[in-house]
Amino acid sequence: MHYTKKEVIQFEKVSFAYGKNKDPTLIDLNFNIYKGEYIVVVGVNGSGKSTFGNLIAGLLKKYSGTIRLFGESLKSENHANLIQKVGVVFQNPESQFIGSNVEKDLVFAMENLCYSPNVMRNKLAQIVKKMNLQSILFSQPSELSGGIKQKVAFAASTIITPEIMIFDEPTSLLSPVEKEEIWKLINQLNKKRNLTVVELTHDINRALQADRLMIINKNKIYFFDTPTKIKEFHLAPLIEALGNNLPLFYQLVIALLKNKIITQPIWDEQSLIKKLVQWKK
Ligand SMILES: Nc1ncnc2c1ncn2[C@@H]1O[C@H](COP(=O)(O)OP(=O)(O)OP(=O)(O)O)[C@@H](O)[C@H]1O
Ligand SMILES: [Mg+2]
Do 54 and 76 share a structural domain? Predict the structure, then answer.
């Protein structure tokens, strides 16, 4: 385990509804997330993943229960300072573009935090190189595709080194190659900078790589543990959350489980091959 057991996000009996007469979107959430953990959250469309991310980011205030960041209640006077330590890449990159061109958008958050011109220049140069944004640096939002805007949103939110990052379906508009690029960067931020990462997704590869996977089902946390702890009875909500387009390997694992050829999910190809070879003997 590469992370230390220091709580950075704590939920105690947290419930949330969009309006007084609305049914709650999330009910009775109780958990701790520790510094440096890589958490993946899955759930069907409309299950409350974005709501969950926005609660952590301090953007939704009318919840019941207690949310603590770094040990301090989000409802304390320190709210503004606390939420400054949380970066979000929103699901819709349109809503995140603030500058009139890409460069201005990337610099905006750094200016807000009063970084010196030298630091800003260095950080800008680094991220532009790392994410290959040179050719679009002076493009305006209207000239960019959704995928590029998503990359810019990623760059703009991670340039200021927050302590917690929430990625809300950060690769939904990207090509397979670009997805890999972003996932590599997320992994680097998590492992090298010990950043606490909460990624909301429908992608099974990400789900199975998490330090801990959270499945939200019927407004509640249905499962929150290391992916190796997934049992057969967890599979239906997991598959529902991930959609029908699972890669062939995972479809095979599920078919083997359903036919009782294996009794526990085996998510790693080599281990599955070993198991099948033994089974044939
Ligand atoms: N601003 C809002 N006002 C009222 N209801 C909302 C608002 N935002 C979301 N909802 C509702 O809350 C529920 C949870 O929505 P949320 O966007 O958190 O789900 P999600 O899991 O992120 O979905 P998706 O996979 O489609 O992104 C849905 O029923 C949605 O219609
Ligand atoms: Mg969402």
Answer: yes
Q: Which of 18, 166, 202, 203 to mutate to test the pocket of ligand 1 (most atoms within 8 A of CB)?
A: 18
199 and 186 Cβ atoms separated by less than 8 Å? yes
- Beta strands 196-200; 164-168: pairing state: parallel
CB atoms within 10 A of CB 49: 25
Q: Same structural domain for residues 111 and 174?
A: no
Which among 136, 156, 14 has a CA at the least distance from the CA of 96?
A: 156
Regarding the beta carbon of 217 and ligand 1, being less than 6 Å apart is answered no
Structural domain range at position 256 = 247-281
Residues 33 and 157 in one domain: no
Distance 163 CA to ligand 2 centre (A): 22
Q: What CA–CA distance (Å, rounded) separates 2 from 129?
A: 28
Instruction: Confirm or reject: Cβ of 45 under 6 Å from ligand 1.
Output: yes
- pLDDT, tens digit, 9 for 90 and up, residues 60-90: 999 999 999 999 999 999 999 999 999 999 9
The domain tally of the chain equals 3
Q: Are 3 and 34 in contact (CB under 8 A)?
A: yes
Q: What's the residue count for the chain? A: 281
Q: Compute φ and ψ for 17, nearest 5 degrees.
A: -130, 145
Q: Are residues 81 and 166 in the same domain?
A: yes
φ, ψ at 112 (rounded to 5°): -55, -35
Query: In terms of domains, do 157 and 190 share one?
Result: no
Is the domain of 157 the same as that of 229?
Answer: no
Same domain flag for 64 and 200: yes
pLDDT digits (tens, 9 = 90+) for 136-176: 999 999 999 999 999 999 999 999 889 999 999 999 999 99
